[in-house]
Amino acid sequence: MNLLPKHKKPLQTTNEFDQVIVGNSLSKDAWRRLKKNKMAVISVVIVIIYILLAVLAPVLPIYPYDEIILDHQHLKPSFVKNAGQLLIEKRMADLYTQAWRQERLTLSTEEDDMLWAWIDKNEANKVWDYMFIEGNKQLAEGTFTFNKAEQRTLDNLQRKLKTDLQITVNKIWYTPVEGKKQNIAKLPVDTIAGLYAEMIGSTSEIEIEQYSREIEQQLMKTIKTQNVGLSEEEYALLLEKEIEGLSKKKHDALIRENVLAKIKSRAKEIAASDLKEAATDESASFPLNKEITIKGPLSADVKATKMHERRYYLGTDNQGRDMLSRIIYGGQVSIAIGFIGTITSVIIGTILGALAGYLGGKVDYFIMRVVDIMYGLPYMLLVIIAMAIFGRNILNLFFALAIISWLTISRMVRGQIMSLKNQEFIEAARSMGAPTWRIIFRHLVPNSLSIIIVFSTLRIPSFIMTESFLSFLGLGVQAPFASWGSLVGDAVGGMTLYPWKLFFPATAMTIFLFAMNFLGDGLRDAFDPQSKNQL
Amino acid sequence: MPNNKEKKPLLEVVDLKQHFPIEAGFIFKRQIGAVRAVDGITFTVNEGETLGIVGESGCGKSTTVRSIAQLYKPTAGSVIFDGLDLVNAPHEQMLDARKNIQMIFQDPYASLNPRMTVRTIIAEPLDIYRRRGMLDPSVTKESIENRVEDLMERVGLNRAFKNRYPHEFSGGQRQRIGIARALALNPKIILADEPVSALDVSIQSQILNLLHDLQDELGLTYVFIAHDLAVIEYISTRVAVMYLGKIMELSRSSNLYKNPLHPYTKALLSAAPIPDPVIERKRQRIILTGDVPSPNVERFGCYFYDRCPYRMEICKNNIPPMKRMNEHHEVACWLYE
Amino acid sequence: MSNGNSLKTYKNLLEVRDLRTHFKTDAGIVKAVDGISFTLNEGETIGIVGESGSGKSVTNLSIMRLIQSPPGKIVGGEIIFENKDILKLSQRELRHIRGNEISMIFQDPMTSLNPFLKISTQMVETIRLHQNISRKEALAKSIDMLKLVGIPAAEERIHNYPHQFSGGMRQRVMIGMALSCEAKILIADEPTTALDVTIQAQILELIQELAKKLNTAVILITHDLGVVAGMCDSVCVMYAGKIVEKAKTEKLYAHPAHPYTDGLIQSVPRLDKAHDGKLFSIKGQPPNVIDLPDCCPFHPRCHKVMEVCRHHYPPTKDLGDGHEVSCWLYIDKKEHPDA
After folding, report:
1. Whole-angstrom distance, CA of residue B292 vs CA of residue B192
2. Which positions in chain A touch B73 (Cβ < 8 Å)?
């Protein structure tokens, strides 16, 4: 009898009952389970939206996050009213309140009591809102009229709102006597300096000289903010070192930046005076794109918009910057810190944990004692000290967080590897003569990947929290950059007067953290073999 | 099925000992004892034959094959393969020789990396030795690919399943994958560590037949471990019975079953159930009392002394030497001195 | 089931009728147990043999109603124990039956003993849960039980923790605990699979002896045909959630009717018989029991397969003397139009 199944099987993947078998990997399986988890799917969508917003921030139609418009300080969030209308409202509410205080605008005694109570409780917003409605009513009924001075202020404001322009200089062109128009940002430094010198009637040598001095001053300023409480000589010494360390290329770049900024501001001035007329007599429609001549061969692409026609959907902060844009850019920083910090710590932790777990013995002992010792050190304090020593910028923050947070993951990976390394497939690999690195990185780490992924997902929120905490304390990112933490930190001061400054970044952050946590839980369920429902 | 080829020892194991230290101490570890998993065993395996090793759990049979495969560094003794002592050979030379020694494992679920596809698993030994530069330079990625497909066909797997993951296969199919992997480097000897004991009865015979066919076709030599005596009897040319890290009896498999000499072998044979109710109900069993004692203590008498129904005074303090009863039969028991 | 010419007059103790237990998984519904029936008589030992995944363990978990739900669910059938349907009992009544009337021992005794409690505590608790006796009496009874299962120095060993026993001893303790309440049925789920041959022989001997002494009926689940041959009065062979053959042990081994049973018996290497060449082997793999079409699930592996096997599940036929088989080979046209 021929008993072994020798008959030729067709190269199709059906089983003996002619049912098609569909291939399936463990990760596909996990993905399928994740898709069944509604919360996790919603979280994935939310996280993707956040990441898209953060990545696409530069091309989104939002105002620049660092553009300061002092007129627009603390505007309320509004979908329907633009900045101008809000400013008027604010001014009118102010005038009504003043009038009420001067008793030119009379209210009932109950209303008076209520208003005074609000004032006592520092709830100015309520007072203004109430007065604005009441004042408008009385104005319409004719029981109150603005006096001349007040009317004038309002008229001035109206006019100003109509004519104020926000001008952005996009590109500056250089048109030589013969030849093509060139973008001067792409020209060599000397040429730019020469052009600028020509523009203001000086020589390029003088200009470069002057700018070198300016750069020195700028450097000195940063040095002084980073190192507080040193003597002048020490500062001078540090400065010298800094300048020495500055390469020619970097030096040139600094000069170019400065000169370009000067040219741009000149272009802006010229454009402003040019377009003012047009704005007043409404001979041009805004927004307006135009090329204007600065002087001689220099010209600039200018975009002019009516400044007060802007709409701030999430309000503005204390320097008139758009909160929406700041939250999106802040998210960019926070999410980047979350991801990059997690990835760095996961890489360090996985490598060290895997080595400790697989090699065991002295290596394990050494690595684990380092981990124990680092665990014993106060975590926050270390980060704070590191930030104080190496200066407060985002890169140092990444670094400080990453070197401290690989501990947990290395312990976890070590445990996982130790339980895996006695499995038969590892013995099989060893019996085949596989070298150590291959066993670790082809066999052990891929099999620990699911818990590493789950852990990382749950780790990201904690990174963001830490970053926010540091930024809140003022140790994190520095202005004009923003992160969710620094936005919340900035907002705390005027919490009752300008609640939107606190509410929106806090909400944005909370939603993201929730999503990450749900996603982490979902991933854990998806990867967990316990829920595999296998017989 | 004794293979009547010319008998030439392919593998010699001489006085092999494998002790695992038991350590204690907080910072400075010191050894306080040892688990004597294998405690001085000697045997040879001839080319083309199957040496079966049988014994209860903890008798050191798995450790023996792992020591032969150099997964552990033996405490003492030597493992001579094709004239080279693997224990003391330089690493490179040892690796090169070990290409010819491959293993098949017990648990078809744990012995395959769940994150690798079947083709990666089967190609892995080839890949490793290619990277080490120990393979013929004519071996390329494509030739490995072909070899994987050939191997899959050979062990009875559909080559269309090449890119599947192990968890999509049943136990028997996984064991076939494991066998294909062991065959990839064209080894001379295969160490099979209980390759069928985790399988269902109907699958067990498939795998035994497959191993049998492969031996005929490729002239393989097996060292085959099992705790099931019937399986060992079926597959082996010669059988070694192990107890507590020692070989108790070593014999041609037909001899052993017809004429067991050692009391332990007798007990084992009588304990093995036979799937026939008529015979089974008539059988008289030698029921051993007690459990296998701890392998952590050094012994000066017969290792089977505690459980032996025929123990004598001499057994207590004298380790019985291996005695050759006839050409194919050796036994370590004072009864036969 | 009629026991026409049986010497003893058996009393029906447990009757399983058309039991169906299904599991809901991501891949589909797994019909782990799909319509099985058998009867267990007083003092009888019945063997359930099958490969992994054939549903033999699920059958017995269903009898104890220990199926985890979800994903599992007993979707149909009856389990009549002493004129009551176990499937319709309340949790309270169930607790009375479990461990008292029907006890269970498992493959790995370590999983069913609490590692943090002394054996004495666990045994006394179990006994007192079901019997209204004092702590002292229960302890004395426990010690007697341990002595009965052959634990040396039972008076002292009873105060040990489970990890202080070896595998074989632990299994003895489990058996002692299971029988301490004079259970009428002992379900032994692969009781010796984790044990060595010599220990296996001890434990089987013990179960057999105790069953006789206490007149306990035993359901023995195993994949080892040798164990069944020595222990059981009758055998059910399961395949893919169904009983394919059911017979007295001697009959089954002497004249296996179903090709699967036949193949199984032939494919085991035997110590007592000389052999030349190859073992018989059943080709193919055990089926995955998800979404099986209407056919004999064994047909792809069967060496006697016919056309009808591919399209319909065979009806069960009684070959006489309680030898029942589900196979088209034994059905002729007169009995069934499909044959």
Report:
1. 24
2. none
CATH number (domain holding residue A468): 1.10.3720.10
Percent of chain A with pLDDT over 70: 92
Q: Is residue A76 part of a domain?
A: no
- Residue of A5, A17, A33 lying closest to C292 (CB–CB): A17
Q: Do B124 and A432 touch (CB under 8 A)?
A: yes
Domain-embedded: residue A412: yes
Q: Do A150 and A169 fall into the same domain?
A: no
Instruction: Assess whether A285 and A344 both reside in one domain.
Output: no
DSSP for residue B268: H
Q: What is the band of C24 on the pLDDT scale with cuts at 50, 70, 90?
A: confident
Domain boundary pick from A163, A194, A216: A163
Cα separations in angstroms, C136 against B53, C120, C130, C132, C160: 50, 11, 15, 12, 17
Distance separating alpha carbons of residues A427 and B66, to the nearest angstrom: 9
- Does A364 lie in the same domain as A380? yes
The residue of C283, C291, C298, C301 whose CB has the most chain A CBs within 10 angstroms, and thus the best one to mutate to test that interface, is: C283
C-alpha span between C329 and C339 (Å, rounded): 9
Lowest mean pLDDT among A99-103, A438-442, B100-104, B119-123: A99-103
CA distance C34 to chain A (A): 15
Which residue in chain C has the smallest CA separation from B235? C269
- A59 within domain boundaries: no
Candidates A259, A267, A257, A265; CA nearest to A301 is A267
> What letter represents residue C73's amino acid?
K
Measured between CB atoms, does B208 come within 8 Å of chain A? Answer: no
- Looking at chain C, which residue has its C-alpha nearest residue A7? C283
3-state secondary structure of C61: helix
Partner residues linked to C17 by β-bridges = C78
**8 Å CB contact of A427 and B128:** no
Q: Which residue of B has its CA nearest to C254?
A: B276
- Chain B residue with Cα closest to C198: B271
- Cβ pair C281:A535 closer than 8 A: no
Question: Residues A332-386: pLDDT tens digits?
Answer: 988 988 888 889 899 999 999 999 999 988 899 999 999 998 888 887 787 788 7
- H helices of chain C, in order, are 56-63, 91-97, 109-112, 119-130, 135-148, 154-157, 167-179, 197-214, 225-231, 249-254, 259-267
Q: Same domain, yes or no, for A487 and A357?
A: yes
Q: Tokens at residue A314, please?
A: 């999430």
Instruction: List the beta bridge partners of residue B17.
Output: B39, B76
CB contact under 8 A, B230 and C197: no
Domain limit, last residue, from A107, A129, A163: A163
How many domains does chain A contain in total?
3
Q: Are residues A181 and A156 in the same domain?
A: no
What type of residue sits at position B295?
P
CB contact under 8 A, C197 and B274: no
Question: What pLDDT, in 10s, does the model give residues A485-524?
Answer: 888 888 888 787 888 889 999 999 999 999 999 998 888 8
Cβ of C300 within 8 Å of Cβ of A3? The answer is no
Residues A285 and A176 in one domain: yes
What is the nearest CA distance from A532 to chain C, expressed in angstroms? 8
Measured between its terminal Cα atoms, the distance across chain B in Å is 31
Determine if the pTM surpasses 0.90. no
Q: How much is the average pLDDT of B204-214? A: 91
Task: Write out pLDDT tens, residues C175-201.
Answer: 888 888 788 899 988 888 777 787 888
Domain that holds residue A286: 165-307
Are both A366 and A473 inside the same structural domain? yes
Q: Which of B113, B132, B206 comes nearest A443 by C-beta?
A: B113
Contacts of B257 in chain C (CB under 8 A): 271
Q: Does B64 touch chain A (CB under 8 A)?
A: no
Cβ neighbours of A431 in B, within 8 Å: 69, 71, 98, 102-103
Name the residue ranges covered by the structural domains of chain C: 259-335
Answer yes or no: is the ipTM higher than 0.95: no
- Same-domain pairing of A352 and A467: yes
